[in-house]
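Here is an idea for our session: we take a single protein and study its fold together. Once you have written the record down, we can walk along the chain together.
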Amino acid sequence: MRVHTALGPGLLESAYKECLFYESIKEGLFVEKEKPMQLVYNDVHLECGYRLDLMYASKVVVKIKAVEALNDVHLAQVLTYLKLSNCKIGLLINFNVASLKNGIRRVIL
């Protein structure tokens, strides 16, 4: 909430990600940024370039968006990242909203 209050909507996703990462570190949370994810296909580990925006305590995946509206493909991305990371909980956060409470979607696998 602090990041959205300070910056408001209209910036690039990368700006929100960096600020959220900074705030999380400042609060003493264990967070990883741009965490690489492997794709396992037929027992072969493939490096496909998938990167999680943020991962908290190796348990919660956070996908940052700055779009006019969230749609099904954004939800599909979070679900895929949850499967690849073996996490059960994700947050899809759209910073391009007037009030951040309208931009947060919790995803459970």
User: Anything to note?
Assistant: The domain at 2-108 is CATH 3.90.320.10 (Lambda Exonuclease; Chain A).
